[in-house]
# Entry
Amino acid sequence: MNTLSRRIIGAIPVLLGISFLIFLLMHIAPGDPVSLLLGDDATPVDIERTRHEWGLDQPLIVQYWSFITHAVTGDFGKSLKFNESVTKLIAERLPATLELAFAALCVAIVIAIPLGVYSAIRHNSLLDHAGMSVALIGVSLPNFWLGIMLIYFLGGQLNLLPVAGRIEYGIDIRSITGLYLVDSLLTGNYEGFWSALQHLLMPAVTLGSALAAIVTRISRSSVLEVMRQDYVTTARAKGLSERMVIWRHILRNALITIVTILGLQLGALLNGSVITETVFSYPGIGDLLIQSISARDYKLTQVLILMFAVIYFVVNLLVDLLYGWIDPRIKF
Amino acid sequence: MFSMRYLKIWVGGAILLLLCICGVAAPLLAPRDPQAQTLEDRLRPPRWSENGVPAYLLGTDNLGRDMLSRIIYGSRISLMVGAATVIFAGLVGCTLGAMAGYFGHAADEIVSKVSEIFLAFPFLLIAIAIMAFLGQGVGNLIMALMLSRWVQYCRVVRGEVLSIRERDFVTAAKALGGKDWYVLFRHVLPNTLASVTVIATFSMAIVIITEASLSFLGLGVPVHIPTWGSMLSEGRSYINRAPWLTIFPGLAIFITVFGINLLGDGLRDIFDPKLRRQR
# Structure
């Protein structure tokens, strides 16, 4: 059996465990979810009918089986809060969250890798200490506060960037992938591209800041570790220029660790989007999750949490497999 | 003894100590009752601003409540939730990790599978899920955070125990007739203390940010209890009119987490010989 199939089979019990935990949470929750959702005005007949529609009058094991089969087929029924198909709601909003997560990843890469590598090369210099202090500040900043401060200064005081939403009202982008930046470029809608980019900037910086801080520290320690290897000493001893040693021997090897960490953090970024999307009223699945919780739409909440967990799990699995491919010394 | 090597620990420790004093002595330090509303004084800016009044150093909120008092009282929740989570998650994680590492076989299999499931969940999501279904409350919050953090201790302690149990002093303790549980708790576990201390410190910083995030989302403690996260959430609607409502609670979270991270960094620098070499 090859690595991929072994890992996929190994993932099944974990995914079942995750789905069971989520399912269990809804059932140990105090109060009847149907009564809570329908409110005080609902009659016992309404409540009973909804319970029957949701299958909540069935035995627990039947309900779990139904939850699993629906999850596998992707048919989750209708959301009671939005009165729309759950699958459609997710399909509409998932691209927004993916776009935000990738933008945040780009912000983190652009800031963190040069800063971390330079700090390591100028080890113990003033810049190294300054870089590490900035990274420590970044790790300690609550990202929702950073978001609010950006809204206040860049949006409110300087009026530089829009503070909410995904695109300016009135601008329409023809949907191809659902990613506004990509779709606007594909359709030549540059006004839409500019507006989407402006709307994405503050949320991406907010979401990417903590990751940037983590990656800066890891880049630094990874480069420092590689710099002490014998092959780097050999490269220097054979007379290579310092630039060549850094680019060809140090960076290439240090990047393996950095890329892995970035990949592993992509799943975390998707989940971190819950808070960032709430701060910026950004219409992604994180925002949808909080709306479903506020509206007590437990069914939608359950599906969204399962989806977040599965995405996180699958991304981590892919990165794990990719790691083995990048660095053949790693064996699973 | 003060030296530059311990600077991070001193500064971080001092911030944490100040926070503890604030939390414990809140009734003595806070100038007013954090819940007392003075509607005629609502949205007063900080004392040094143009319309500020001396009675309210950091201004007042939309209900005329004193911001400084609310921030001082807010430290109680952050501290209590942070400490309780770190202790409970540490106890659960260390015990399970030690058992899995020391006894191996079935114990290791079960603990590893369960921790794999928890590791597959991002910790913020576990906390959001639990709070969404169980509802607001300090107890629920601590449980939600504990369930999302125990696995970090478990993995590290398991790994350490796996290596420590092969050491000579453990063999000697067994040869002298030490029972498994005695050897585990008396000889093996104390040797994992350095790593556990470092994890606990960083974990506390993460827990404080997560608690604030959950309160910000309206999923933390009940609204009548002042917390930094809920203050930020309430102040958000007044961001342009009264920015101090969001600036000060956010600064309080930042300084606290910064101090704890500094302490954690300092402790890791001392305990981790690999990092010491990098310096």
About this structure: Residues 1 and 164 of chain B are 32 Å apart (CA to CA). Chain B touches chain A at residues 113-114, 116-117, 120-122, 124-125, 128-130, 132-135, 205, 209, 212-213, 216-219, 232, 236, 239-240, 243, 246-247, 250, 253-254, 257-258, 261-262, 265, 275, 278-279 (CB under 8 Å).
